[in-house]
Amino acid sequence: MSYCSNCKQPISNEADRCPHCNSLNSKIDGILAKEAAEAEKNSFKGQMKTVFQADDKKQALLLQLKRAQQALTKEVLFTFFIVFVFIFAMTLTVI
I want to staple 24 with a disulfide (CB 3.0 to 4.6 A). Which of 28, 32, 35, 43 is the partner? Predict the structure, then answer.
């Protein structure tokens, strides 16, 4: 027997939600919070926070850029190349 983290009423350990206030079990809350923190860390915003909080910002930024480059597939690189060539060709014809 445990207690709801929201309303402090007793609930069974197997219950996913509190029968009194319908809030999630504290174990599930912990799992969801951990997943949200991991998603935040892997997002662009989280990566930039890591760079700004680092002592050596240049090294942290280079590390993040290297990780991003390693994540790119050949198809993505080819697509970037085609877009760049198209924009260059269109700019060249205008000039």
Answer: 28
